């Protein structure tokens, strides 16, 4: 039942992003509202694809509260952010923006799924809950999610620096957002 609701949520969220794409005339990735809408689509899609591949619906106990929290966050954003505004000059390289932000969405989504696997792995190894999947399966699940997310996040940094060079004439400017994105912890 939970998986069915997740598929319905994904369908309605895809519809929401699709309508926003039509209204904006571009993929909605330019502000926090649009990023959050798109993140929710990818989070649900990545989770449901991993669930289908591994037959492990237990991860939904961790992933779905993240999705609900993101939905609540989207609703809490100011109404002014929901308006479709023209892109600022730095964001007008649509191709680089789309690739950069889409890879970030993919990375964050797979990391959320890996987080869910890690939480359940800790539960299984410390409390030996018999109805949860085995530790080996959860370990493999988390590993595979990270093997998608880590290269995607690496490409986010590389493409982001190329985009920065296109927009501002320098690959790196020690901007706090750039520095925080590349720091190891």
Please supply descriptive tags for the structure shown above.
mainly alpha, single chain, 185 residues
| Residue-averaged pLDDT | 90
Q: Helix-strand pattern, N to C?
A: HHHHHH
User: Which parts are unreliable, with pLDDT below 50 for 5 consecutive residues or more?
Assistant: none
Could you tell me the strand content as a percent range? under 5%
Kindly name the structural category.
Answer: mainly alpha
Give the terminus-to-terminus CA distance: 38 Å
What is the radius of gyration computed over CA atoms, rounded to a whole number of angstroms?
A: 18 Å
Could you characterize the architecture of this molecule?
This protein is mainly alpha-helical. About 75% of the residues lie in helices and about 0% in strands. The chain has helices at about 1-25, 30-55, 60-75, 95-125, 135-170, 175-180.
Question: What is the secondary structure topology, with strand pairs?
Answer:
Blueprint: H1 2-24, H2 32-54, H3 60-76, H4 94-127, H5 135-168, H6 176-182
Helix pairs in contact: 1-2, 2-3, 2-4, 3-4, 4-5
In short:
The chain is mainly α and 185 residues long. The chain has helices at residues 2-24, 32-54, 60-76, 94-127, 135-168, 176-182.
